[in-house]
C-alpha cells in the first residue's frame, strides 16, 4: 500500500495527498480573489459619499453665511464691529450657544464643533445629527460622516481682516474633505 494514497472504507481509492494540497491552493486563490473584490467595493462608492459630504458642507456654509459676523455687529443700525467707533469685534462664541445650529447667532459659535478644545469647543458633530438640524432630506444618509468646524481670525493684513472657517467632513472610511470659508465683516 502506498503511503500517499488515502483509502476509504470498502477498499476504494480516495484522493492523493497531492490532489488534496492542490485543491487547498485553488480554494485559497478563490477566497483571496473574493476577499479583494469585497474589500474594493466601498472604494467604488466613494463618489457617492463625496457628493453627500459636499452637500453637507454646502448646507453648513449657507448657515454660516446667514449669521452675524460678530456679536458686536449691529446690522439694523448698519454698525460693524471695530469700525467708526463701534466696539472691537468680540471674536468669541456667544454664551447662549448650544449644540443646535439654530441657536448659533454669530460665526464664532461654529467653533463649538472644533477638535482643538479652544473657546469651549467640544469636537466634531455627527453628520446625521447635523443633517437633521439643517433640514436635509433623509438625514440617515449622513450617519457615516462627522463634521468639524474651526473658526480663526486672520489679522495678518490690518486692512483686510476676516474670519476663516474651516469645514472638515470625514467619512468613516478615512477620507476627509476640507473646505475653507472666509467671512468678512460686511454686514
TL;DR?
This protein is α+β, with helices and mostly antiparallel strands and 187 residues long. The protein has 3 helices and 6 strands, in the order ββααβαβββ. The model has no long low-confidence stretch (mean pLDDT 82).
General description of the model:
- It comes from Oceanisphaera psychrotolerans.
- Keywords: Membrane, Transmembrane, Transmembrane helix.
- The chain crosses the membrane at residues 20-39.
- This is Prepilin-type cleavage/methylation-like protein.
- By secondary structure, this protein is of the alpha+beta class.
- The chain has 2 domains: 5-44, no CATH class; 46-184, no CATH class.
- 30% of the residues lie in helices and 20% in strands.
- The chain has helices at residues 17-44, 46-66, 127-133; strands at 5-7, 13-16, 125-126, 145-154, 162-171, 176-184.
- Strands 3-4-5-6 form a 4-stranded antiparallel sheet.
- Strand 5 (162-171) and strand 6 (176-184) form a beta hairpin.
- The mean pLDDT is 82.
The portion of residues forming beta strands comes to 15-25%
Helices, by number, come to 3
Question: Spans with pLDDT under 50 lasting ≥5 residues?
Answer: none
Series of secondary-structure elements, N-terminal to C-terminal: EEHHEHEEE
Structural class: alpha+beta
Largest sheet: 4 strands, antiparallel
Q: Determine Rg (CA atoms, Å).
A: 29 Å
Strand arrangement within the widest β-sheet reads 3-4-5-6
Termini separation (Å)? Answer: 96 Å
Proportion of residues in helical segments: 25-40%
| Number of domain units | 2
State mean pLDDT (0 to 100 scale): 82
What spatial form do the alpha-carbon principal axes imply? Answer: rod-shaped
Number of strands: 6
